[in-house]
Write a structure and sequence with these properties.
Chain lengths: ~500, ~170
C-alpha cells in the first residue's frame, strides 16, 4: 500500500481523496494556492504545502512545484483528482519519472483518449460504436464544409483536444459552417492550446449515459454500470443518477461490454469513465474520461464499491478482487452539483464569503463538500461548492429524498444552483424520466421564480418585524441617553 | 408603525399598530424568534413554521433566505416613505438597474447602443470570464441611457457596463 499521497487538487475532490487516504491509513499532503490558505482540503490533510498565487496557472497547474512538494514531503504517490492536471499526459509521465505512483491511468492511455480523433479511430478498431463523422482533424473551413456534406446536417464541430463544452459548435446549415469553424477553432486554441477541430453528426435529442470502469495493473477490467447525466447546461452536467431510467439489464451488459473493450484497447488501468450518447435504443462512444469523475458517488451508492479507495489500492499494485459477476446494483442514487451560480441570472458565477452553511443530513444523504463557513468563494476556480447525493430504494423515493435534502440546505453569502435543482426534481418530465440533453433548454420555466402569496406574506411579516425591532432598539437607545424609559410593545416577544 | 415591504417587485403593507401584524388587510398571528448568536430566525405565522435567515444589507434592504430561495427585500416605514415621496426619491419609475460586470472579465460584445429599447431578459453584453462566455441580460424593460464599455475591454467586478432609463413616457 502507498505510504503518503500528495493530492494535486482542491475543493470537494481533494477532500474526498484525503478522506479515502485516512480510511486506508495513508498519510495525505494537500497543496494549495494563496487564496486557499484556510480551505477545507488544507485543514483536513495531514500535511500542506503552498504552491503559489491564486491563479491556477501559478499554483494548481505548476507541475514543477507539485513534484518538488511531493519529493520534499517524502510522498510515494500523487492523486490528481479531476480537472487541473488530471488528464494531462505530461504530468502523469513526470510523476512516474520522478519515481512516484500516479493514481490514474498511464500517460500513454491518457494521450490515446485525450486526442479525440485518435480515440475515435481506436474505438472503431476495437468494435465500439461511434457517432458517424470524421476521425481526423479538419484542415480548414473548406475541408469542414466538404465533410459536413458527407456526414449530413446537423453536424457538431468539436475540439480534438477538448472537453467540458469548450470549442464545440452545432451547425444546422452549410452557410453557418465557416464562421462556426473559425470560432470553435479559436476557442479550442484558447482553452487547450490546440485549435484542431473535427466533425460528427449531431444527434438531436440523445441522452448522455456513461459507464464506470475500474481496472488494475494486471489486466483485470470490470464495469460498474451506468450513470445518466443528461441534465446538462452548456455541456456541463448538473444532475446525475444511477441507474438510468432507460437502461435495462441487457442494455447495461452491452454498454458495459463496450466500455470494457474501450478501456482494454488503450491498456487502461485505474478508474475511468466511457461516455456514450444514447438515442433510439442505440449508443455511440463519445469520449473516455481518464480520471475519477465528479459524479462517481452515485455509482458508489448503488454498487457499494468505494471507487477512490480502489483507485489508491490498484495504483499501489493490488489485484482488483471484485469480479464482474460480483457487481450488483441496489436502489437508486441522484447527485446534484451545488455550484456558486445564480440560476435566475443565466447561471452567472457568484462570488463572496460564505456567511452560513448548513448541509442537509439524515437517512440516505451524502454531502461531499469542498467549502465551509467563512470561505471566500472566488472566481479563480470551478464553481462547484459541494455535491449533494442521495440514495433510496426507488427512483421516486430518491427524488423525494433529494427534494427533502435540498430543503434542509442553507447557504448564505453566495448564490447557489440549489433552487434550480429543487425545481427540476419536482418537474413532471424529470419525474417520469422523460429527458435528454436538451432538457434545460426545453424547460425555461425552471429558470424563473414565482413568489407565492404565502411566501411573500411570510417575508413581509419577517421584514416588518425586524425593521420594528431596529426602530425600537434605536428608540430605546435614545431613551437611555435621555434617562427616560419607553415600553416596547414587541419587547416581550424574545426576538432580539 | 406601518411598513411597506417590496419582494421581487411586489409591494405589501404591514401594519404593526395593533396586537398582531396585518398584511394587506389580513391579520396574521405572528411570532418571530432568533436562534441565539446566529442569523437564523424562526417565524410562526398562524401556527405555520418558517425558518428564515436574515442578513441586513443597508438601512432599508435585507436579504432573506426562505425554503432554499434568496430574496432581496426592501422595507420602508411610513414616515420614511412620506419623506422620500416629498423629496422626490419615492416611487418614481426608474429604469432597470445598470448591467454590471459580475466578475472580472473581458467584454466580448456589446449588443445595444444608446437609445435602444430593451425588453426584460434581452442580452445586453457578452463577457468572457473563466474561459466561458456569459450573457448579461436586462432585468427589466427600459431604454439604454449610456454604454460605458466596448468589445475587447477588460473590466473589474462591479464595473457599470450599460445604464438604462425607464421606458419612453418620462424620457
Amino acid at each position: 500500500m502507498l505510504d503518503k499521497v500528495l493530492v494535486a487538487n482542491r475543493g470537494e475532490i481533494a477532500v474526498r481523496v484525503i478522506r479515502a487516504c485516512r480510511e486506508l491509513g495513508i498519510r495525505s499532503v494537500a497543496v494549495y494556492s494563496e487564496a486557499d490558505r484556510h480551505a477545507v482540503h488544507v485543514l483536513g490533510a495531514d500535511e500542506a504545502v503552498l504552491l503559489g498565487p491564486a491563479p491556477a496557472a501559478e499554483s494548481y497547474l505548476r507541475v514543477d512545484r507539485i513534484l518538488d512538494a511531493a519529493r520534499e514531503r517524502g510522498c510515494d504517490g500523487v492523486h490528481p483528482g479531476y480537472g487541473f492536471l488530471a488528464e494531462r499526459a505530461p504530468f502523469a509521465r513526470a510523476v512516474e519519472e520522478a519515481g512516484l505512483v500516479f493514481v490514474g491511468p498511464s500517460a500513454d492511455a491518457i494521450e490515446a483518449m485525450g486526442d479525440k480523433t485518435r480515440a475515435r479511430q481506436a474505438m472503431m478498431d476495437a468494435g465500439v460504436p461511434v457517432v458517424p463523422g470524421t476521425a481526423h482533424a479538419l484542415a480548414d473551413a473548406q475541408d469542414a464544409a466538404a465533410v459536413a456534406e458527407e456526414v449530413g446536417y446537423p453536424v457538431m464541430l468539436k475540439a480534438a483536444a477538448g472537453g467540458g463544452g469548450k470549442g464545440m459548435r452545432v451547425v444546422y446549415e452549410s452557410k453557418e459552417l465557416a464562421s462556426a469553424f473559425e470560432s470553435a477553432s479559436r476557442e479550442a486554441l484558447g482553452a487547450f492550446g490546440d485549435g484542431s477541430v473535427y466533425i460528427e453528426r449531431f444527434l438531436e435529442g440523445p441522452r448522455h449515459i456513461e459507464i464506470q470502469v475500474l481496472a488494475d495493473n494486471h489486466g483485470n477490467i470490470i464495469h460498474l454500470g451506468e450513470r445518466e447525466c443528461s441534465i446538462q447546461r452548456r455541456h456541463q452536467k448538473m444532475i446525475e443518477e444511477a441507474p438510468s431510467p432507460v437502461v435495462t439489464g441487457p442494455l447495461r451488459d452491452r454498454m458495459g461490454h463496450a466500455a470494457v473493450a474501450a478501456a482494454r484497447a488503450v491498456g487502461y488501468r485505474n478508474a475511468g469513465t466511457v461516455e456514450f450518447l444514447y438515442q433510439d435504443g442505440e449508443f455511440y462512444f463519445l469520449e473516455m474520461n481518464t480520471r475519477i469523475q465528479v459524479e462517481h458517488p452515485v455509482t458508489e451508492l448503488v454498487t457499494g464499491i468505494d471507487l477512490v479507495r480502489w483507485q489508491l489500492r490498484v495504483a499501489a499494485g493490488e489485484v482488483l478482487t471484485v469480479r464482474q459477476e460480483d457487481v450488483g446494483w441496489t436502489g437508486h442514487a441522484i447527485e446534484c452539483r451545488i455550484t456558486s451560480e445564480d440560476p435566475y441570472r443565466g447561471f452567472l458565477p457568484s462570488a463572496g464569503r460564505i456567511e452560513l452553511l448548513q448541509p442537509p443530513g439524515g437517512p440516505g444523504v451524502r454531502w461531499d463538500g469542498g467549502v465551509q463557513e467563512g470561505d471566500e468563494v472566488s472566481l479563480y476556480y470551478d464553481p462547484l461548492l459541494a455535491k449533494l447525493v442521495v440514495h433510496a430504494a426507488t427512483r421516486e423515493a430518491a427524488m423525494d429524498r433529494m427534494v427533502r435534502a435540498l430543503g434542509e440546505l442553507r447557504v448564505v453569502g453566495v448564490e447557489t444552483s440549489a433552487p434550480f435543482h429543487r425545481r427540476v426534481l419536482l418537474e413532471p418530465d424529470f419525474r417520469s424520466g422523460d429527458l435528454d440533453i436538451r432538457y434545460i433548454d426545453q424547460h425555461p420555466e425552471l429558470l424563473e421564480r414565482e413568489v407565492t402569496l404565502a411566501t411573500a406574506q411570510s417575508l413581509a411579516v419577517t421584514a416588518a418585524l425586524l425593521a420594528e425591532e431596529d426602530r425600537q432598539r434605536r428608540t430605546a437607545r435614545r431613551a437611555e441617553r435621555g434617562a427616560s424609559s419607553t415600553t416596547s410593545r414587541w419587547r416581550d416577544m424574545g426576538w432580539r | 408603525m406601518r411598513y411597506y415591504v417590496t419582494v421581487d417587485g411586489k409591494s405589501m403593507e404591514v401594519d404593526l399598530t395593533g396586537d398582531a401584524p396585518v398584511v394587506d388587510g389580513q391579520r396574521v398571528e405572528a411570532e418571530l424568534s432568533r436562534v441565539p448568536g446566529t442569523p437564523t430566525l424562526h417565524l410562526l405565522a398562524d401556527g405555520r413554521s418558517h425558518v428564515v435567515v436574515a442578513t441586513r444589507r443597508d438601512r432599508h434592504n435585507l436579504e432573506l433566505h426562505l425554503n432554499g430561495e434568496r430574496y432581496d427585500v426592501e422595507v420602508v416605514d411610513e414616515r420614511t416613505r412620506a419623506i422620500l415621496a416629498m423629496t422626490g426619491q419615492g416611487a418614481i419609475a426608474k429604469g432597470p438597474r445598470p448591467v454590471r460586470a459580475p466578475m472580472p472579465g473581458l467584454v466580448v460584445r456589446v449588443n445595444v447602443t444608446p437609445g435602444d429599447q430593451v425588453e426584460a431578459g434581452q442580452s445586453i453584453v457578452i463577457i468572457e470570464a473563466m474561459k466561458m462566455e456569459n450573457d448579461l441580460k436586462a432585468e427589466a424593460a427600459g431604454v439604454v441611457e449610456r454604454v460605458a464599455t466596448e468589445a475587447g475591454q477588460a473590466v473589474e467586478k462591479g464595473a457599470v457596463l450599460v445604464e438604462f432609463r425607464a421606458e419612453a413616457e418620462d424620457g
